[in-house]
Specification:
binds erythose-4-phosphate, transferase, alpha/beta, cytoplasm, 11 helices, globular
Length: 217
C-alpha cells in the first residue's frame, strides 16, 4: 500500500519523506488555508515547493465547480510539474472533467467520495485515484471501512485500474485496516505514519539491549 501524506505543511512533508516511506502528497483548499497559503499565485508556488520536496504524486485541487473552469484550472495545475495530479470534486462536471483529463493522459484524483456508486462513476471516467473519505464517514457514525471494502470488491470484479486512495485517514488503526482491506493508497497526517513506529516493547527491548552491551564492554 502506498503512503501519501495529507497536508500542505512543508516540515511534515519533509519529515515523512526523510523516513523513506512516502509515496506522495494530497492537499485540499482547507489544508492550504491552514498553512496560511492564500491567493492563486501563492498556492501555485506552494504546489511547486511540495513537488520539489518529494518524488511521488502530488494532488492539487481545482476550486472551480463548472466544467470549463475545472479544465482551465486543471490544465494550469498539470503544467506546473510532472508530479501534479489534478484533484476534482465528485460532481457531474467533475466527472466530465475527469474523463477529459484521463483522455489526455493527465492523472486525476476524484475527491469527496462517500458512496460505492460515486466510486463506480469515478473509475468509469478513467480516474487515476478515487478518494473515499473514511474518517468523515466515521464522524457521522457510518462505517467508513465498509465503503473501502465495497469499492475494492467492485473494482476487483471488473479489473478497474483506478487506485483506491483511502482519504480522511485519522489514525494508525485506519492505516492498518485500509491495508487489510487492500486499499491501494492511504493518505493521512504525519502522526498516522509515525504512530506506526510505536511499541513499548520495542523501547523496553532496546534499552535492555544497550544496557547488556555496556555490561560486556
Ligand atoms: C483527501 O484528499 C482530503 O484531503 C483529506 O483526506 C480530508 O481529510 P479530513 O476529513 O481529515 O479533513
Amino acid at each position: 500500500m502506498k503512503f501519501f501524506i495529507d497536508t500542505a505543511n512543508l516540515n511534515d512533508i519533509a519529515e515523512a519523506e526523510a523516513l523513506g516511506v512516502l509515496d506522495g502528497v494530497t492537499t485540499n483548499p482547507s489544508l492550504m488555508a491552514k498553512e496560511g497559503i492564500t491567493g492563486a499565485q501563492n498556492i501555485l508556488n506552494h504546489y511547486k515547493k511540495i513537488c520539489e520536496l518529494v518524488t511521488g504524486d502530488v494532488s492539487a485541487e481545482v476550486i472551480a465547480t463548472d466544467y470549463n473552469g475545472m479544465i482551465q484550472q486543471g490544465e494550469e495545475l498539470a503544467a506546473l510539474h510532472s508530479q501534479i495530479v489534478v484533484k476534482l470534486p465528485m460532481i457531474a462536471d467533475g466527472i466530465k472533467a475527469c474523463k477529459y483529463f484521463s483522455d489526455k493522459g493527465i492523472k486525476t484524483n476524484v475527491t469527496l467520495v462517500f458512496s460505492a456508486g460515486q466510486a463506480l462513476l469515478a473509475t468509469k471516467a478513467g480516474a487515476t485515484y478515487v478518494s473515499p473519505f473514511l474518517g468523515r464517514l466515521d464522524d457521522i457514525s457510518t462505517d467508513g471501512l465498509h465503503l473501502i471494502k465495497e469499492i475494492r470488491q467492485i473494482y476487483d470484479n471488473y479489473g478497474f485500474e483506478t487506485q483506491i486512495l483511502s482519504a480522511s485517514v485519522r489514525n494508525t488503526m485506519h492505516v492498518i485496516n485500509c491495508a487489510k482491506l487492500g486499499s491501494d493508497v492511504m493518505t493521512g497526517p504525519l502522526s498516522s505514519i509515525t504512530g506506526l513506529l510505536k511499541h513499548p516493547l520495542t523501547d523496553i527491548g532496546l534499552v535492555q539491549f544497550l544496557a547488556d552491551y555496556k555490561k560486556g564492554n
